[in-house]
Records
---
Amino acid sequence: MRTFRDRTTVLAAATAAALALTLTACGDDGTGTRSEGSAASDSATVAASAAESGKAAESGKTTDDAAESGTTDSVGGGTGTAQAAGTTQSSDGSGTTGGTASKASAPLCTAKGLTITAERQDGPPYTHLTLSAKNTSGAGCEMKEYPHIHFLDNARGIVPPVAKSKPEAPVILEPGQSAYVAVRMSEGGRKESTETVKEFTVTLKANGGGMAVVRSPAAEGLSVNPQKWATGYWTTELRNGADDF
């Protein structure tokens, strides 16, 4: 209804302007002759301008009405639904983005949520250990890097890692799943200088997840050589080659 009233007002103004010019044209030009042709031309020009102004005003009004109704014309014609701010138009025009959100990364494993045990690899001369870390936390977690193992006092330092053992993909443990590490304690030589340990500590330094005390799998203890010991990185399974050192 408001559009119709505005259109009537514009047309009435245009008609009045044309009539005024026509009456002016009917007057004398000072010579006693009428300039009807020129007046008619001017009248037509003004009428056309008024009509164009009316169309422009009506077009603007239509755009305002469309904005109020929540619809807009598409570029190629027709109508489309106005897009709400902050949304992304999908290829199917649904106004929502496609795909699913990526899953959040797993939290880091902690010593409290793991059961860490050691088994001596078959020998003799029993030069290697296999550490197992079973996820008992009830939720998935990530094991990072390698265990910081102290076989002896802290002054002797940690067992250094072997670079080739580092896995390419993150090690994610589901509940009940285990991660493994191969550990070399010595070379098993007869003239090798070793020391005996009956328990040692494993710290999840990279995880910031605390420390666990691990008992020797052998009652007599383990023979370790600080000059030869080495450890692998946490993996979900021991791999031939990468964990052979």
---
Amino acid sequence: MLKKFTSLVLVYFIQSHSVLAQNNEPPSLLIKPFEATYNVLHKHDKVGEGTRKLEILDNGLIQYSYHTDIEWLIFSDERSETSIIDWQNNNVVPTHYVYKRKGTGRDKAYEWTYDITEDKATNVKTKTNISVDFPENIQDKLSYHFQHRLNMLKDPTQDHFVYPVISTSGSIKNYVYEYDGEEELMLPYGLIKTIRLKREVVDKKRVTYAWFAPELNYLMVKVYQTKGGAEQFEAQLKALRYL
């Protein structure tokens, strides 16, 4: 159960903060670099912290990353994930994805590069290429968070979001989020009004709720997940600073 809990934390971990400018401006004007910190909870107990960061690289690409460090009883789990993102035709385009995990149990590491125009994905670790029929607006397991933020900023009235996401094995699956109401939350960050979205994976009996704050340009400020009716994890915004 604990291993599943930490995996779910990182799959659905908190999204970035960005500021939308004009649609055709370069990425440096579309976002404001930031660092956000979150408390990670399990059954209302704090078990760790997570940091989400967004930066503009010297070459104009976007680096979007997180780091989490969880300690619970004799269990430890430290993970990081990084996505290097390009900006084409007003859409997020993933180019390079890195994932690392160490702690109790088996360590894991994945690194992929993507050539969307050539329908090619490269496993950097094994130096092998695979052909992928990339659908429109393809995302990696982290970059879709950034695309989602931009979509909410562009049209806050939208109530249905679908993102095709490529896994670390090269398969593609749609991630779907639905509007689920509005709510005022008291978080470590403070009192804030939010819009709540819901994602349900029926075959796994898993439901994820995510809260976004309009006054923070739709930063995700809370996420909560259940599986089979039992709580899996929760994360809450603690602090936000601009770089």
